[in-house]
Write a structure and sequence with these properties.
two-stranded parallel ribbon, 53% helix, 4 strands, mainly alpha
Length: 305
C-alpha cells in the first residue's frame, strides 16, 4: 500500500498560523564577529542537518536538541555545549564502558558467559575510527530513541570529520617542517628568499574563493538554512499528521532581509543563490575546502573579510 502524499502548506504572509514567530534575523548579527573558521563550523553543521536522512513521509530526521537551541534564538549552535539528559536513551560506548559491561556479564553469568547468545555478546569488526558501539534503552519510546540516535549520529560524524581535518593539518605541518629544513641549507636560502616573501599574502591568493565565501554571510545562508530546518521540524516527531511546509519568496524576503531588498531584488539575487548553493553540493564542498586552506581567512572575522 502506497504512503499517502501529505498536503503541502505554503506560508505567504506573517498572519499565517505557521509563521515562524521564533525567528528574528537580528539574532544572527553575532555571526559577523565569528572568524571564518568558526563560521564554517556553524555552516557545515547546518548543512549536515539539512542533508540528514528523510523519513518515508518526507520528513527529515533532524538533531532535535540543536533545533531547540535554534528556536530559542541561538544562532551559534555548533560551539554551544548541548546538555544531554542524565540518563540518555542512546549513548556511544567507549573502551571503559565495554570493559565494565564485560565484567558485569562475567559476574552475572559465571563460567558460562562465553556461551551467551550473540545478541548479548557480539564480535566487532571494522576500523576503530569508523566504528561506534551504541547502547540503547529499549524501555523508551521509538520516537525518543530515534531523536536521540539522530543527535548522536550527527555528533559522531562531526567528531570523525574533525579528526580527519586534524590529521590533514598535522600532515601539512610535517611537510612544512621538512621544507623549512631544506630552506635552512645555505645553498638554497638566497634562492628561496624572494618566493617565500610572496607566499605571505594568502588574502590575494584565493581572492575569488574569499569573495564567494563572504556571500555565504551577506546572502544570509545560515538563517536561510534554519528556516529550511523549520520546514522539516514544524511538527513534533511523535505526531503523525505530517505536512510539507514551504515559504513563498515574498515570505523569505521579509524574514531574511526585511526592507533591505525589494521582492524583485530578492528574486534576482538571493533566491537563485540559494538554489545554486543547495543543488550544487560539490561546488560548495570545494569552496569550503579551499577556504580551510586559506590561513588568513580562517583567522579573520567575517566582517573584516
Amino acid at each position: 500500500m502506497k504512503t499517502p502524499i501529505p498536503i503541502s502548506i505554503r506560508i505567504k504572509t506573517s498572519d499565517h498560523p505557521k509563521w515562524p514567530k521564533w525567528f528574528s534575523i537580528k539574532n544572527y548579527d553575532c555571526l559577523a564577529d565569528l572568524t571564518a573558521k568558526q563560521f564554517l563550523n556553524e555552516l557545515e553543521f547546518r548543512l549536515t542537518l539539512h542533508n540528514s536522512p528523510t523519513l518515508p513521509n518526507g520528513r527529515k530526521l533532524t538533531d532535535s536538541k540543536r533545533w531547540q537551541l535554534i528556536q530559542k534564538g541561538y544562532a551559534i549552535i555548533n560551539s554551544n555545549p548541548v546538555t544531554q539528559p542524565d540518563f540518555p536513551t542512546v549513548i556511544a560506548l567507549n573502551h571503559v564502558d565495554l570493559l565494565t559491561i564485560t565484567e558485569t556479564i562475567k559476574l552475572r553469568s559465571g563460567e558460562d558467559y562465553l556461551n551467551l547468545e550473540p545478541q548479548v555478546m557480539m564480535p566487532l569488526l571494522g576500523q576503530a575510527q569508523e566504528l561506534a558501539v551504541i547502547g540503547i534503552d529499549l524501555n523508551q519510546s521509538n520516537e525518543t530513541i530515534l531523536a536521540d540516535l539522530g543527535y548522536l549520529l550527527i555528533q559522531l560524524r562531526e567528531n570523525l570529520k574533525n579528526q580527519a581535518l586534524s590529521a590533514e593539518a598535522n600532515h601539512q605541518a610535517i611537510e612544512k617542517g621538512l621544507r623549512i629544513r631544506e630552506l635552512e641549507h645555505p645553498a638554497v636560502q638566497q634562492i628561496e628568499e624572494t618566493s617565500l616573501t610572496t607566499k605571505k599574502r594568502p588574502k590575494k591568493a584565493n581572492h575569488t574563493d574569499v569573495k564567494t565565501f563572504k556571500k555565504l554571510f551577506t546572502y544570509k545562508l545560515i538563517p536561510y538554512l534554519d528556516l529550511m530546518l523549520y520546514c522539516h521540524n514544524h511538527i513534533p516527531l511523535h505526531q503523525e499528521n505530517w505536512q510539507e511546509l514551504s515559504f513563498s519568496q515574498t515570505a523569505l524576503k521579509a524574514l531574511l532581509f526585511g526592507d533591505e531588498l525589494d521582492n524583485e531584488q530578492f528574486k534576482k539575487t538571493s533566491a537563485p543563490f540559494y538554489r545554486k548553493i543547495i543543488s550544487n553540493e560539490s561546488h560548495l564542498t570545494q569552496l569550503l575546502a579551499n577556504i580551510r586552506k586559506n590561513t588568513w581567512a580562517l583567522g579573520t572575522k567575517i566582517r573584516d573579510i
